[in-house]
Amino acid sequence: MSRRRRVRPLSTAAAAIAVAAGLCAPSALAQDPAPAPDAPEVRSAVEDLSRPASPAEERSWDAARAELAEDTAGDAFYRPPATIPARPGTLIRSEPSAFYLDPVKLIRVPARATRILYSSVDAQGRPMAVSGTVLTPTAPWTGAGERPVIGYAVGTQGASDRCAPSRTLSTGEQYEGVGISSLLGRGHTVVVTDYEGLGTPGAHTYMVRESQAHAVLDSVRAAAQVDGAEVTASSPVALAGYSQGGGASAAAAELAPAYAPELDLKGAYAGAPPADLVQVADRIDGGSYSAFLLYAMSGQLAAYDVDPAVHLNEHGRQVLTDAVETCVTDSGEHGSLDSSALTHTGQSFPQLVRTDPQLGRDPRRAEARGGGAPPGGARDDRPLPHGRRHPVPRRPGAGAALVRRGRPRPLRPGPHPHPHGRLRGRAAAHALVPRRGAGRPVDPELLRLVLSVR
To answer: HEC string of the chain?
Structure first.
């Protein structure tokens, strides 16, 4: 199968933004202000995302991928122990790592990087091992109180183990690297989860609400057990994520009062969170994001122990098997895929979920739309910003992922396409911790969610 013309590697564009923002120098950890979203250097870097890669960049990218694939094979670090600790958030093992912004490894972020393996709980309440990375700035914290810690939930990476952030951060292939490094530049410790099955054995349970939320919250718990991470049981905590990460951050904020009440959670940034997953599937089926639909189908089936052969024909099972071996950077091979060609009945994936008794009665559909707001949560009726050219639905009900006392938040459409919203939302994420954390008192009845794609 011939590949589509590949655009400039995301890590190359990320490095360009990092250079423009001055994030590569050690002085960046002195909490220098970030450039405005509309600054010329940021606009230039954003435009760089859509330019075709040069032959030299293609070779550099392919070499980095080959190195990553070689490192992935037989890596014992990610293998869970025979018995996983029953207490969620228990550190199983750790090892030194590194954080680069480019695959050539010219730009190393000045932070202490530690790869971790820790215990968590899957969507059915079973113990599981999850990998991740703890990043602590090398510069001392100069703000008030303890150094804040950010539980960072990455956007869509893919479904193959080689896509795990704990791998791509160390090889300079992580497209979220600039956003993560800018948080480090403000003095915060950042803990990046790999989620379930992304790095560790088993399927990546992409967009499974409880699994993702648990992985985020337990990564912060585990970070407190890492030597030199400067995370304690009383550290102020914030959550942040965009796209898949926005959904994980929002779900973690919802579940934290019951699942991790001991965490001093100050707030959460949830950018462009997918809300109603069936509506999302309607929107992306047959389009350029079709691989994401395959990731979601694989993750949902795996999370709830459903045999793919029940719903998918032979061709569909092969396509699903191929898709889960891709990362987002090469997921274009599955673009414009019509999911109705993959099922026994000829129904598309969204139609199947709506009509099949086994899938349709599953309570996870309601959970994906935001059932189960935290008890006593404060009502928040402000609009939930979303991009107009966004692959998730824009209807008001999509805001129900963030219900407060039974009332959903409406959407406020914005003008930005999905990838660019990540850059424009960074300012909101940066504003979260200084306003909600750093030891400032927070009304216990209020779990404020700062949501933006601008």
So the answer is: CCCCCCECCHHHHHHHHHHHHCCCCHHHHHCCCCCCCCCHHHHHHHHHCCCECCHHHHHHHHHHHHHHHHHHCCCHHHCCCCCCCCCCCCEEEEEECCCECCCCCCCECCEEEEEEEEEEECCCCCEEEEEEEEEEECCCCCCCCCCCEEEEECCCCECCHHHCHHHHHHHCCCCCHHHHHHHHCCCCEEEEECCCCCCCCCCCCCCCHHHHHHHHHHHHHHHCCCCCCCCCCCCEEEEEEECHHHHHHHHHHHHHHHHCCCCEEEEEEEECCCCCHHHHHHHHCCCCCHHHHHHHHHHHHHHCCCCHHHCECHHHHHHHHHHCCCEHHHHHHHCCCCHHHHECCCCCHHHHHHHCHHHHCCCHHHHHCCCCCCCCCCCCCCCEEEECCCCCCCCHHHHHHHCECCECCCEEEECCCHHHHHHHCHHHHHHHHHHHCCCCCCCCCCCCEECCCC
Flag the least confident range among 104-108, 118-122, 339-343, 443-447: 443-447
Residue with tokens 């973690």: 252
Q: Is the pLDDT of residue 131 over 50?
A: yes
Report the alpha-carbon distance of residue 308 to residue 286 in Å, rounded: 20
pLDDT in tens, 25-77: 333 333 444 455 566 665 665 566 556 667 777 666 666 656 655 555 458 99
Contact 269, 429 (CB under 8 A): yes
Which is more confidently placed, 75 or 421?
75
Q: Give the pair of three-digit tokens for residue 203.
A: 């399927």
Whether the predicted pLDDT of 218 surpasses 50: yes
> Distance between CA atoms of 325 and 320, rounded to whole angstroms?
9
